[in-house]
Amino acid sequence: MIDRVLNVGLIGAGRIGRLHAQHLARRIPRARLAAVADVVLASAMACASEYSAPNAVDDYRRLLEDPAVEAVVVCSATDTHSQIVADAAAAGKHVFCEKPIDLTLERTDATLAGVHQAGVTLQIGFNRRFDANYRRARAAITNAEVGTVWRLHIVSRDPSPPPIEYIRTSGGMFVDMTIHDFDMARFLIGAEVEEVFATARVMVDSAIGTAGDVDTAVTVLRFANGVIGTIDNSRSAAYGYDQRVEIFGSGGMVATSNNYESTAVISDRDSVHRDLPLNFFMQRYTDSYIAEMSAFVDCVLDGGTPPVTGEDGRAALVLGLAAQRSARENRPVRVLSSNA
Amino acid sequence: MIDRVLNVGLIGAGRIGRLHAQHLARRIPRARLAAVADVVLASAMACASEYSAPNAVDDYRRLLEDPAVEAVVVCSATDTHSQIVADAAAAGKHVFCEKPIDLTLERTDATLAGVHQAGVTLQIGFNRRFDANYRRARAAITNAEVGTVWRLHIVSRDPSPPPIEYIRTSGGMFVDMTIHDFDMARFLIGAEVEEVFATARVMVDSAIGTAGDVDTAVTVLRFANGVIGTIDNSRSAAYGYDQRVEIFGSGGMVATSNNYESTAVISDRDSVHRDLPLNFFMQRYTDSYIAEMSAFVDCVLDGGTPPVTGEDGRAALVLGLAAQRSARENRPVRVLSSNA
Amino acid sequence: MIDRVLNVGLIGAGRIGRLHAQHLARRIPRARLAAVADVVLASAMACASEYSAPNAVDDYRRLLEDPAVEAVVVCSATDTHSQIVADAAAAGKHVFCEKPIDLTLERTDATLAGVHQAGVTLQIGFNRRFDANYRRARAAITNAEVGTVWRLHIVSRDPSPPPIEYIRTSGGMFVDMTIHDFDMARFLIGAEVEEVFATARVMVDSAIGTAGDVDTAVTVLRFANGVIGTIDNSRSAAYGYDQRVEIFGSGGMVATSNNYESTAVISDRDSVHRDLPLNFFMQRYTDSYIAEMSAFVDCVLDGGTPPVTGEDGRAALVLGLAAQRSARENRPVRVLSSNA
Amino acid sequence: MIDRVLNVGLIGAGRIGRLHAQHLARRIPRARLAAVADVVLASAMACASEYSAPNAVDDYRRLLEDPAVEAVVVCSATDTHSQIVADAAAAGKHVFCEKPIDLTLERTDATLAGVHQAGVTLQIGFNRRFDANYRRARAAITNAEVGTVWRLHIVSRDPSPPPIEYIRTSGGMFVDMTIHDFDMARFLIGAEVEEVFATARVMVDSAIGTAGDVDTAVTVLRFANGVIGTIDNSRSAAYGYDQRVEIFGSGGMVATSNNYESTAVISDRDSVHRDLPLNFFMQRYTDSYIAEMSAFVDCVLDGGTPPVTGEDGRAALVLGLAAQRSARENRPVRVLSSNA
Questions:
Q1: What single string gives the DSSP state of each residue in A155-219?
Q2: pLDDT of residue C15
Q3: Distance in angstroms (rounded) separating the CA atoms of residues D245 and B194
Q4: CATH T-level assignment (fold) for domain C6-120
Q5: Mutant choice from B146, B154, B196, B199 vs C, greatest count of C C-beta within 10 A
Q6: What is the pLDDT of residue D338?
Q7: Under an 8 Å CB criterion, which residues of D touch C?
Q8: H-helix or E-strand containing B234?
Q9: What pLDDT does B339 receive?
Q10: B128-284+315-334: which CATH architecture?
């Protein structure tokens, strides 16, 4: 039963912001899009108009002053996240924040402290946890279908690299891209990582190297419970978005593969083939975006701990920074406490 | 651009009606659910309330009198379809009608004549045409990926039989269930069927036989363009909803398989296995239901021939009746003109 | 333990004959290739030399006179089978005969009578029964993994048609090609067919039609135990040899797919693809050829009924002739007794 | 044409020795099994009898004295390999030696020096290079189907651990088991490894740890050409022998999967499943054992470099020792020259 509806304000009406706006307006019956803020007022207004939000502003602080807004979804530029989350918490708003909270541990910790003090709910946007493939893989562990887990292997390759300008301010591949996989690793295994070894190279585009980043990496994780994890990352995959996981244990293995637009397989004179997998993260993960936001709304309305906490966001960042250091220094790096 | 929105009235707020109501209210930006009619007023009101329709009535004729209603979606009991479609057309409403228009050719023809005279748009609810698997299979033909088509094989098995009371008034498996496959066959091959041979048996449940129907059938189609088609039907499949197609021609083959909730494959001590395919037609065909209704709305707003016409509905019925006769008389039955 | 070895003479050193020679000489420890007969003496000698047979003749009757030869493998031209089998049986030799015994029921029956009178073992070369895929499908039935069987669907397509000269004397597609599938149907279902309906066309090559044959056919089988079978045949498949089966019953379904040279799947900018399946029947069915001959040798040495009897050969011919008639007369044809 | 036949002596008639004996006697037309040596004379005699070798001895030196023996296949205990290879080379015999030549680099080098001095052919038994899956993966690289290679991932898991007594003298998992994968990595990538990082644990059986070994490992390889490789090893897999590879590059990906006894897939009330993959290395790799030995015979008879040289054997050992050290010291280990 839809007892009551949560009024949600959107901060940042870019690509991912508009996606959340659409879901809040149309796909999540318990939510209502109450306002949109964007530094470009025209963007805020266009988004508000398309998804029937009654209010559009250019300064998010005016949105936070609106008593009708009970919760906010933060989709602004990464370097504004920590300030906005802190302000929203101080204003007593519940917060859904796209990853990461911040690229530094210091500001992340300060932000989390503010959230804690305010007592509001904070959920981080690691949407992949809500994907049907990964949920089924996780269930295979919790249902003991694969016994004691020994190995985790994550493949996470983007179709093509982001613009060089983006890469320059991204914080580096390990905290920008692999961070999703660190969260996935923690989600799937349900334990903390103690040590990280990463090796990385520039293979896709030398301009990425010039910008100070890498584009191809392997990260080895040693979990506290003995599991050995590996993450295979690339900024480019000719065949599209490649998102898979394999978990192996004493009782067997669960492996997921990519998602496709259709199941059609064509056999002709040359080969037996099918069309490429879903290529774009918004298409691949549509359902998980809806599910994460729906979970946030439920959590605010019904109470309880959000499925992805601020501490989860912090733990993934810790691993990203450790991997970065490991790759730079070519040695295993201990993770003091990824969840403290 | 969403220039303007089509106001749609729903007639029949049962299971499939509520599905269409949800899509009209939330998933199709160019549509608005304007009213709901159901012989059980409480059902109409509950549906109208859940999907924010401003009007709920028990008599569909009052809905037809509403000038705000521009088009209707007919989801009432099958034996009321022809009357309602005729009334709606006479009232100048465009009509989306769930299959079949009627179980008899006579009333079907009379209804189509009324629609034609009124000049309104009529679309029949053969939603499977909009499914991504079948669209890709059709595209493999139109893109010449399989050359000249020689063979079509459709597998269409339900998870479990409907209640015996339903079967008694269903018109029989060939016009109730196989009718979807006849339409699929015509859609995929893009040609008319000249001759039908069907063989059928009661294998699933002897009560179905007692009710005068069959539950297992094979139908052979000879198309005007030489293609030989086969349809494999069962009212029951232990592993769930089984919906596949294989098209074979001079250049190769396209084959579709079932859809699954996730791609996870588990290997354990006993087998390499995955969970069962999507089991329920509403889950399996959600996207195709949205797409067919969206196409209807576009067609009414923008003009043009609907993707599934009343004549398509008639042609599938003609094949169903021919198959029924063939199975009964155990001989091939010529189809005089399935699209005349 | 290899107690003793069976001395086998080969009659007909063509393509399939040389394959059997190789298996007898090298792959079946309990067999020894004792002699080779071929109307072309040079062929007999070349084969004998390659596979170390001590004797090569041009007249099979001289091979039958050789007391060292205990059993013969008949791989000569189809129209010589019945005479050679009769002569071999009269000479007290056990016989493995490639399908068919003869294209007419009369001569088949006469030959079987001779074999019966002589009391020798006769096995027919329906090698596909020994293929791992079909054996597993059969086991799914006998192990009750699919419950009571309701449906059988066989796909059997050749990579390309035989020469027109071959087609002219082949007896027609139903007795030349489909005969393998009739045997497979009887093997898998373990019951007899009561009625056959076949529809056939010339789609691949009009020259086949000019030669009086068809190249594309669908055959519907009604088994005594209620199972409905369908056989999908084509003389040509762009992607190669297509040999599959699907069995569906109250408990589920077993389906086999084609065999491949390797499991490698390549994902590139255009598609996710793999190489074509094994294209040539000798490559696809190597193991089944070895297994059938090994079973024959065991049967002669150890006693017992051969796994494919002369009556099995006859039953498949009966179905082929019935299908031929059904296609010609466009009506279902009763099969009086396919195994009498 | 089989111009002439190579007379081969087998040294060591254990499990793998008998497999080679069978292939030499029956599957490789250009070879003849001329003699068998085994420290247990009864084993030598049984093997010679079964595969029709004219000579059986208990002291391999007597076999080396036999002028009829042109080449030897060394399948004795690992710690005897280097001495036997050296003796065979000194006696002018060509040598096929099961991996490894020796567990130490010193003795390996000494043995290779002796082989070099004698000028005989030496091939090492890395049979997996001849497997159809891996050959196809290699071809995808050489045919530029995957572009410039960036990543290699090898999964290599045994069905169950060997006996503890075996493990004690095996040299450790990296040189006993992973050595196959090091060779596979070099074969597939066609470049040398510069640095190795390995992490290993005892997960399967604590007795393996007590015996001083590990049973679960991940090895990261940095190749000279920039490729990053990962090897995933386990001594135990509940579902059987797991042997796969994935190669990823600028143009796409090639991935192989496991081999199965049949293609049958069963859908029932619980799942869609197939039987476990081929479980035993002799069954999984039968064809590759034949192909490697056939290549050895061709190489001796026709001249040329063997497809797997002594230097290949040495290079894999170097990587095994480096991985061992890396795992022990928890740091990346440079490989000075894996092919010097």
A1: EEE-SSPPPHHHHHTS--HHHHTHHHHHHHHHHHH-S-EEEEEEEEE--S-HHHHHTT--SEEEE
A2: 94
A3: 51
A4: Rossmann fold (3.40.50)
A5: B199
A6: 43
A7: 26-27, 132-133, 135-137, 140, 145-146, 251-259, 261-269, 275
A8: strand B228-234
A9: 45
A10: 2-Layer Sandwich (3.30)
Q: What b/e string do you get for A114-145 counting C-beta neighbours within 10 Å, with b at 16 or more?
A: bbeebebbbbbbbbbbbbbbbbbbbebbeeeb
- In tens, the pLDDT along B208-259 reads 999 999 999 999 999 999 999 999 999 999 999 999 999 999 999 999 999 9
CA distance C192 to C315: 9
B chain contacts of residue D159, beta-carbon cutoff 8 Å: none
Query: What is the pLDDT averaged over residues A22-29?
Result: 95
Structure tokens at D238: 């509940």
8 Å CB contact of B271 and D275: yes
Other beta carbons less than 10 A from residue D269's beta carbon? 12
User: Which residues of chain D have a CB within 8 Å of the CB of C262?
Assistant: 132-133, 135-136, 256
B316 three-class SS = helix
Report chain B's terminal Cα–Cα distance, integer Å.
38
- CA–CA separation, A219 and B302 (whole Å): 54
Chains that touch C (3 or more CB pairs under 8 A): A, B, D
Tokens 């891209």 — which residue? A177
Q: Is A286 helix (H, G, I), strand (E, B) or coil?
A: helix
**Domain spans of chain B, in order of start:** 6-120, 128-284+315-334
Cα D262 from Cα D248, distance rounded (Å): 28
| pLDDT tens profile B256-298 | 999 999 999 999 999 999 999 998 778 888 999 999 999 999 9
CB contacts, 8 Å: D238 with chain B: 267-269
State the average pLDDT over residues D321-333.
98
CB B147 within 8 A of CB B251: yes
Pair type for strands C94-97 and C71-74? parallel
Q: Where are the alpha helices (DSSP H) in D56-177?
A: 60-65, 81-90, 105-118, 132-142, 164-168, 173-176
**For every one of its 340 residues, what pLDDT tens digit does chain C have, with 9 covering 90 and above?**
446 899 999 999 999 999 999 999 999 999 999 999 999 999 999 999 999 999 999 999 999 999 999 999 999 999 999 999 999 999 999 999 999 999 999 999 999 999 999 999 999 999 999 999 999 999 999 999 999 999 999 999 999 999 999 999 999 999 999 999 999 999 999 999 999 999 999 999 999 999 999 999 999 999 999 999 999 999 999 999 999 999 999 999 999 999 999 999 999 999 999 999 998 788 888 999 999 999 999 999 999 999 999 999 999 999 999 999 999 999 999 997 644 4
Mean pLDDT of A197-219: 98
In angstroms, the first-to-last Cα distance of chain D is 38
The secondary structure of residue D129, as a DSSP letter, is: G
| Percent of chain B predicted with pLDDT > 70 | 98
Could you tell me if A253 and C220 are in contact, meaning their C-beta atoms sit under 8 angstroms apart? Answer: no
Note every long-range contact of D281-286, with CB atoms under 8 Å and residues 24 or more positions apart, other chains counting. D281/D241, D282/D15, D282/D19, D284/D241, D284/D243, D284/D259, D285/D127, D285/D128, D285/D131
pTM to 2 decimals?
0.96
CATH topology agreement for domains D6-120 and D128-284+315-334: no
Which H or E element spans position C18?
Answer: helix C15-22
CB D67 within 8 A of CB D80: no
- Whether A298 has a pLDDT exceeding 80, the answer reads yes
The pLDDT-based confidence of B336 (bands split at 50, 70, 90) is confident
Identity of the residue in A147, A153, A201 whose CB atom sits nearest the CB atom of D232: A153
Residues C62-100 have pLDDT tens digits of 999 999 999 999 999 999 999 999 999 999 999 999 999
